[in-house]
Amino acid sequence: MSAALRDLYQEVVIDHSKQPRNFRKLEGATRTAEGFNPLCGDQLTLYVKLADGVIEDIAFQGAGCAISKASASLMTAALKGKKQEEALALFRRVHILLTEGPSGAVKPEEVGKLAALSGVWEFPMRVKCATLAWHTLRNALEATGSTQ
Ligand code: ZN
Questions:
Q1: How far apart are the CA of 123 and the centre of ligand 1, in A?
Q2: What is the pLDDT of residues 88-112, one digit of tens each?
Q3: Tens-digit pLDDT profile for residues 111-123
Q4: Which of 11, 16, 42, 100 could form a disulfide with 37 if both were Cys (CB 3.0 to 4.6 A apart)?
């Protein structure tokens, strides 16, 4: 990864952690799930409004480190208007990117703006911070209850 790209990704993460998008309680949510990452103390509540299998609206609240907030913010921004299956497919791609890194099976450009999180794979302790919102999303969509 070039230094310029790395700087750009870092700027995106800082921007989303300082001004998280969709950071609110969602009235009329059809699914809600709680997520907690005990390694770091990150916690979040995810609200999803599903209509005919499409994520009509999505929002979150919670407290956590910059990575967890930026990840939830980027995720909600990316998923609005997406079909449930598309959201889960994106989760799988992001998960591979975060665990294998940019030279793994999934290239950063395959996940759009979420590529900004690709530097996290170099810090295994932070991968759970970045995937917390996604695991919570999967639980919300599959309605299996709490995360982990
Ligand atoms: Zn964290």
A1: 11
A2: 999 999 999 999 998 899 998 899 9
A3: 999 999 998 988 9
A4: 42
Determine which helix (DSSP H) or strand (DSSP E) holds 95, and give its type and residue range.
helix 84-100
Length of the chain: 148
How remote is the CA of residue 129 from the centroid of ligand 1, in Å? Answer: 4
**Distance of alpha carbon 42 from alpha carbon 129, whole angstroms:** 7
Task: Give domain limits for the chain.
Answer: 3-147
3-state secondary structure of 40: coil
pTM above 0.85, yes or no: yes
Q: Please list the helix, strand and coil fractions of the chain in percent, rounded to the nearest 5, in that order.
A: 55, 20, 25
Ligand 1 center–CA 51 separation, angstroms: 31
Mean pLDDT of the region 55-59: 98
* Distance from Cα 128 to the centre of ligand 1, integer Å: 7
The CA 39 to ligand 1 mean position distance, Å, reads 7
Domain at 3-147, CATH from 2.40.128.110, 3.60.15.10, 3.40.50.2300, 3.90.1010.10: 3.90.1010.10
Residue 35 burial (10 A CB sphere; 0-12, 13-18, 19+): buried
